UniProtKB/TrEMBL annotation, chain A:
Protein family: Belongs to the Mg-chelatase subunits D/I family.
UniProt protein name: Magnesium-chelatase 60 kDa subunit
Pfam family, one: AAA_lid_2
Ranges for region Disordered: 231-262, 287-322
Keyword Iron: no
Species assigned in the record: Roseobacter fucihabitans
UniProtKB/TrEMBL annotation, chain B:
CDD domains: AAA
Protein name per its UniProtKB record: Mg-protoporphyrin IX chelatase
Reaction(s) the record says it catalyses: protoporphyrin IX + Mg(2+) + ATP + H2O = Mg-protoporphyrin IX + ADP + phosphate + 3 H(+)
Superkingdom assignment: Bacteria
GO molecular function ontology, one term from the record: magnesium chelatase activity
Gene: bchI
Length: 553, 334
């Protein structure tokens, strides 16, 4: 286990290297809440010309575009320069709020290899609040030091004679070593060893050497690989297996054993040496919940925020009423053809001549995406009879959801708890995976399941999705909200939760999976103002038919 | 922008490379979709493609790269009508591009300064007779996808806005790349791609090391590297050009047509698009390999990339559609 002090030490090295060669390295994710400590950590970068990027930054600011103010003033087209026209160091604030679209654009800028550097300040708390994966993938460092900053924390000093990192000599063995270590830790992306190579070069140059040595490799590996690792070499642990991100198209013979098929040279001394030198928290980091590695891996496919501004419609003429947003470009376009005529009428007027009739307003067609929250009873009683049927039904519904571009989420409840197995996503690959590995057994905490689903519904609604809750259960609620096995209380609690769902206004569909229809479930559906569907002897196919009919209704 | 990494220097990923080359032999195949993990060289390959494509002859000042002065659109005020040789356009369609930028719009500069109503061509115009590349295609906003679907179908871009009424040819090879973990692609768009390939990281350490070595050589010993692989790229380009000439003469036996139909029926792929793509791609492959007659071997080699994305998605099938296609191909073709 590494100590907190060591993690701060590594952070210091990373920051020093970033200051030394920002454009060569490309940047970092700094995952910390805003605080004086973070300011202190960031302080070394003060000397660089930092541009602040906000998650809602407009493309014109990033890549240049029409400079409206200047255009209006001189009445001919003035283009503004974007941040990325010249090599720059950008500070992406609130990176966890940045959409995958902006992430992709920034990633593209890094791919151009023009000497851009992006520091993503990530204040995310949960695994699904993280810097977009496409961007994180291209940033070598992931700085998330643990504990308090040690007193007297400072960057290592650079050696005066500076080499250019690009000219640092690297032997063929060093390249092989980095590739092998990456492979052993289950890092599939070929970018990781390349980034590590750059870090090693930068570190050698920083220390005033023109050739990579073992220490450089060690530093590079410890800074670049831990948060990308998906497995511990030769020590498969159940927990690590679970954490492995699913391959894109799971093929039975391929899935999971890609690593085994790696023809790793047995007993390679160099690899062993590097492994021995790896900081111990490389292993710890793998299983530590919350922080580092999740942001690179598991959070990838989850739609984090519903930045659904709706479908833009052509702007239309209108009056400025202080609420509508003006479409400046469209307004200019509308005014443009009239300029010569208006100029003749008002020869003394300056600038562009814009009349109220030219004003164009932006319009969007709000089209909220539907989210289907499958709330699946995985309790013992359900598992005995119908869990597999339910799984099959959900899978079939998923295929329909996919075709209709719906988002889906998966909540399961059993024992005393409910769990969000899959936050809202559109990725079939992920959903299939989670569903297949859904275990069964334990009591039926229906109330907790409903509560979790309701919470998820409320969250997703605030992100602009329209949630529908689909509960699949056999109805024998026997665990109360507080986790005690009390059938009467469990029923009351479930009823209360159902009323809460109704007050939220989420659409609900209760599917009765028990062998004989349960009156209590029909009542429950009534409480949440939802539909009730009894499927005493349902096959997956009839179930989907019934459900889609109910949803369309 | 630095010189892109040379195409021929990409290690492995043969299905992806083959698919891209075949669209260069016959642009009518209709594009390539590359889906897979991050860091597998998807965008590297597309960016490398530009250097590989044979140059086209086009009217110098034509905004849609017309091959003859007579074919230039009326709205284009041509400066020089001279025919020049220029690289095949490979146009990047950035995510979040506005509709104006994609289809073109009123030229605001000329409107403001001279009060003239003129058309400013968009990305679709620039991509005519070339390639349109969309990275992270599954994140593309729906309204842009709709636009693309329409234009890719008709081969023509029609703009009716702001008092403009403009049309121009927009025939391009659509290349998309993406990561399935970010979400799926709409079936309509999926179907629009002629070929689809899945890419994965190489699972042999030797290959991985080779990837890193070449990339490093590209960065540190740029000139020597470019000389070596530039020559390789030129060879591929030459083969593409000679394949284009041979394409029309490929003999297609009746039995092969029959095989195509049987394959598509067995797979239950929708519409005739699958069969046509299968046939076209197989022909392009034969031409590229210098064969004169289409054989089952050609079909077998390209069936997964031409058909796997046309199957109905079956979420219960864990095996993935590529495997399904291979299984049926083996049953049908033996």
């Amino acid at each position: 286990m590494s100590t907190d002090a060591e993690s701060w030490e590594r952070a210091a090295v990373a920051m020093a290297l970033l200051r030394f060669a920002p454009g060569y390295l490309g940047g970092a994710i700094i995952r910390m809440r805003a605080s004086p400590t973070r300011d202190r950590l960031m302080h070394p970068l003060k000397g660089l010309d930092l541009r602040r990027l906000h998650p809602t930054i407009a493309d014109e600011q990033l890549f240049g575009g029409l400079d409206l103010a200047a255009t209006l003033a001189v009445s001919h087209l003035v283009q503004s320069r974007g941040h990325f026209d010249a090599p720059c160091t950008a500070l992406l604030v609130m990176a966890e709020r940045c959409g995958s679209e902006l992430g992709a654009k920034l990633a593209h800028q890094l791919d151009r290899d023009m000497g851009h550097c992006i520091i993503a300040l990530d204040e995310g708390v949960d695994a699904d609040e993280a810097t977009p994966a496409a961007l994180g993938e291209r940033l070598p460092f992931h700085i998330a030091p643990d504990g308090r900053m040690p007193a007297g924390w400072a960057l290592p000093a650079a050696v005066a004679t500076r080499y250019d990192p690009t000219t640092v000599i690297c032997s063929s063995e060093d390249l092989t070593t980095l590739t092998l270590v990456a492979a052993q830790f289950g890092i599939d992306s070929m970018r990781a060893p390349l980034l590590a190579l750059r870090v090693a070069r930068a570190h050698a140059a920083f220390q005033g050497r023109g050739e990579i040595d073992h220490g450089d490799l060690e530093i590079a590996v410890s800074l670049v690989f831990p948060h990308r690792a998906t497995q511990v070499p030769q020590e498969p642990e159940a927990e690590t297996e679970d954490a492995t991100p699913p391959p894109p198209e799971p093929e039975t013979e391929d899935a999971g054993n890609t690593q085994e098929s790696l023809d790793l040279p047995e007993g390679d001394m160099l690899v062993e040496a590097i492994k021995a030198l790896l900081p111990p928290d490389l292993l710890a980091g793998l299983v530590a919940p919350g922080t580092s590695r999740q942001s690179g891996g598991d959070g990838a496919g989850q739609k984090r925020k519903g930045n659904r501004r709706g479908r833009p419609l052509p702007s239309r003429p209108g009056r400025l009423d202080g609420q509508a947003r003006i479409d400046l470009v469209a307004t200019l376009r509308a005014a443009a053809p009239w300029q010569p005529i208006r100029r003749r009428q008002q020869p003394k007027a300056r600038g562009l001549l814009i009349r109220p009739a030219d004003i164009r307003l932006k319009r969007y067609q709000e089209q909220s995406d539907r989210l289907l929250i499958f709330t699946v009873d995985a309790s013992g009683s359900a598992a005995m009879s119908r869990l597999n049927e339910a799984k099959g039904a959900v899978e079939l519904l998923l295929a329909q959801a996919y075709a209709a571009r719906d988002h889906v989420a998966l909540v399961s409840f059993r024992g005393t708890q409910a769990e969000v197995l899959l936050p809202p996503t559109r990725s079939l690959v992920q959903t299939k995976r989670r569903l297949a590995s859904l275990p069964g057994g334990g009591g039926t905490p229906l109330a907790v399941g409903l509560q979790t689903a309701a919470l998820l519904a409320a969250q997703s609604r605030s992100k602009g999705l329209t949630p529908t809750i689909i509960v699949l259960t056999d109805g024998r609620a026997n665990v109360a909200l507080d986790g005690t096995p009390n059938r009467a209380r469990a029923g009351e609690d479930a009823e209360q939760m159902a009323r809460m769902i109704r007050s939220q206004g989420a659409r609900t569909l209760v599917i009765d999976m028990s062998v004989r229809p349960q009156m209590s479930l029909r009542t429950l559906a009534g409480h949440c103002d939802g539909q009730y569907l009894a499927l005493p002897r349902a096959t997956a196919q009839t179930l989907t038919g019934a459900v889609s009919a109910a949803l369309e209704a | 922008m630095k010189t892109p990494f040379p195409f021929s220097a990409i290690v492995g990923q043969n299905a992806m490379k083959q698919a891209m080359i075949l669209t260069a032999v016959d642009p009518g195949i209709g594009g390539v979709l590359v889906f897979g993990d991050r860091g597998t060289g998807k965008s590297t390959a597309v960016r490398a493609l530009a250097a590989l494509l044979p140059p086209i002859k086009a009217v110098q000042s034509c905004p849609v790269n017309s091959p003859k002065a007579a074919e230039c659109p009326e709205w284009a005020e041509l400066g020089s009508k001279k025919l020049v040789s220029r690289p095949t356009p490979v146009i990047d369609l950035p995510l979040g591009a506005t509709e104006d930028r994609v289809v073109g719009a009123l030229d605001i500069e000329r409107a403001l300064t001279r009060g003239e109503k003129a058309f400013e061509p968009g990305l679709l115009a620039r991509a005519n007779r070339g390639y349109l590349y969309i990275d992270e295609v599954n994140l593309l906003e729906d309204h842009i996808v709709d636009l693309l679907l329409d234009v890719a179908q008709s081969g023509e871009n029609v703009v009716e806005r702001e008092g403009l009424s403009i049309r121009h040819p927009a025939r391009f090879v659509l290349v998309g790349s993406g990561n399935p973990e970010e979400g799926e692609l709409r079936p309509q768009l999926l179907d629009r791609f002629g070929l689809s390939v899945e890419v994965r990281s190489p699972n042999k350490v030797v290959e991985r090391v080779e990837v890193i070595k070449r990339r490093d050589a590209f960065e540190s010993d740029h000139d020597a590297f470019m000389t070596q692989y530039g020559a390789e790229d030129a060879k591929i380009q030459k083969t593409i050009l000679s394949a284009r000439k041979k394409l029309a003469k490929i003999h297609t036996p009746e039995a092969i047509l029959h095989d195509c139909a049987v394959l598509c029926i067995a797979l239950g792929s929708d519409g005739l698009r699958g069969e046509l793509t299968l046939l076209r791609t197989a022909r392009a492959l034969a031409a590229y390999r210098g064969d004169k007659v289409l054989t089952r071997a050609h079909l077998r080699d390209i069936a997964p990339s031409a058909l796997s994305h046309r199957l109905r998605r079956d979420p219960l099938d864990e095996a993935g559609s590529g495997t399904r296609v291979m299984r049926i191909v083996e049953e049908v073709l033996g």
